[in-house]
Model the fold of this input.
Amino acid sequence: MSWDFETEPEFQEKLDWVNAFVTEEIEPLDLLWPHDVYTQLDETRRKIVDPLKEEVRRRDLWATHLGPELGGQGYGQLKLALLNEILGRSMWAPIVFGCQAPDTGNAEIIAHYGTPEQKERYLRPLLDGEIFSCYSMTEPHAGADPTLFKTQAVKDGDEWVINGWKFFSSNAKTASFLIVMVVTNPDVSAYQGMSMFLVPTDTPGVNIVRNIGLYGEPLNEGSHALIHYEDVRVPEEALLGGEGQAFAIAQTRLGGGRIHHAMRTIGFAQKALDMMCERALSRETQGGLLAEKQFVQGYIADSYAQLVQFRLFVLFTAWEIDKYNDYKKVRKDIATAKVVMPTVLHDIAWRAMQVHGALGTTNEMPFFQMIHGAAVMGLADGPTEVHKVTVARQVLHDYRPSDDIWPTEWIPKKLEAARAKFADLLEHEVGNQ
Ligand SMILES: Cc1cc2nc3c(=O)[nH]c(=O)nc-3n(C[C@H](O)[C@H](O)[C@H](O)COP(=O)(O)OP(=O)(O)OC[C@H]3O[C@@H](n4cnc5c(N)ncnc54)[C@H](O)[C@@H]3O)c2cc1C
Done:
């Protein structure tokens, strides 16, 4: 019987080190350079960040999402979850540990589907933490339903020519290459007619029209690009995986990406709970600490309950991925974690903000960033509603309709069956009376 909630002592030691390292060495970077997480390191930042990355490598904690053949540690998803829940409380920490979105998912699909040349050209520098990548899938007129995408690649000799628009292509402005999902055969279903291409960002015709910012960022200085692909020519070798394989590749990418977001969200929500508890123990009103008021105790208890359920479920899902080594088999639980994640983060951050009073609503505390993060988690990698549909469909797979007009659990029918099962005994009992 192996059903264990303990972390092996050697790995726990590593986690303890990570915890202190993130607090002391990395969280200060979040304050100094909150908007430069995905930009190439300038001289000053390189002097600070490179030695931190080196220390992470020295401790065998670099790029733990990948197997050893790709420069990772082969620790698997469960250990990654335990690590990511610590890294999730800092913006810079995933960069310093070589496991930041969206590069993790992008690296994963190049590792799975890339040719040796593609791996050498794109994967190697990505894993070395020297370049950034961008996943360019959503279009301005359609996001949640990829069958509506229109951006198209047409064969011209031994080249493909890409034309169309993409929206919310995160980090395109700093990425060295884009992974673009396009229609290559409009005559078959979208599931067979779309392909992925690896496109260097400086290819002529890749026009970044706007860099859309999230709430609070200045207009047109954000990181989510509206891109016009205008007669973008790429060689045949730019195709990632086979022609028509885009949907299969997207599932590999998004499965990993979604659960990694959930792992990091645990850390972010834990940070909100920590702040709520500290404030509750520090602030007095009407003759007592906030921590003694039942409303506030309710906030703390509800938050702890939500977080602990979410955390255990994410760890369990990570364990399942390691066990089956196949995202498809764990699709229901990955989608469930994706559905639950925004609510958990939103609720805990909202209560923590409330407990901080006016201060909580200011730009001197991180609560709005967290609440905004929850809204983003309800959309990035697909909206909550669409994932609920996936969960419901997967749950329903295990059920059959009743073979009768009455439900299987209809008590009169079950009672009749129970009487029939024990008829001999019951008759005997009646006979004895
Ligand atoms: C911060 C951030 C980063 C992102 N990064 C990237 C990226 O790097 N690359 C990329 O390609 N995309 C990226 N996206 C885009 C993201 O994948 C899309 O926002 C998402 O797929 C939804 O598409 P949409 O925004 O067009 O919404 P729509 O498809 O227009 O959906 C809008 C709303 O309609 C409802 N809805 C949609 N479908 C259904 C349904 N079937 N049933 C019920 N209700 C439904 C939901 O409420 C949904 O929120 C990012 C998004 C965010 C917020």
Observations:
- The radius of gyration is 26 Å.
- The longest strand covers residues 159-170.
- Strands lie at 133-136, 152-156, 159-170, 177-183, 194-200, 206-212, 224-235, 239-240, 284-285, 288-289.
